[in-house]
Amino acid sequence: MNWFTVIFATLIEGLSAFGRSSAISPFLGALCQDLSLSKVHISGAYSLGYLAAGLVLPFLGRIYDRVPLRYFLQGLIGLFGVIWLSFGWGLSALASHPFGCWIGLMLGFIGIRICIQAYGVVRSALIASGWNHCRGLVTACSVLIIALIASVYPYFCYQASQQVTWQSACLLFGGLWLLFLIPARWAAKPMTPSVPSKRFQASRIGTKGILFYSILFILGFKHFQESGIAFHLVSMCKEFGVDARLVSASFISITVLSIGVSFIAPPLFRHLGARFILLVFLLSDLGMLYGLHCISKQGMLTLFIVCSGIYWGIHAILTPLVIPSLFNEKKLGAFQGTAYAAMSLGSALGPFYFAWMKELYSYQMGLKLCLLIAFLMPLMGLFIKPTSSSLEV
Question: CB-hemisphere CA count at 13 Å for 176?
Answer without folding.
Answer: 10
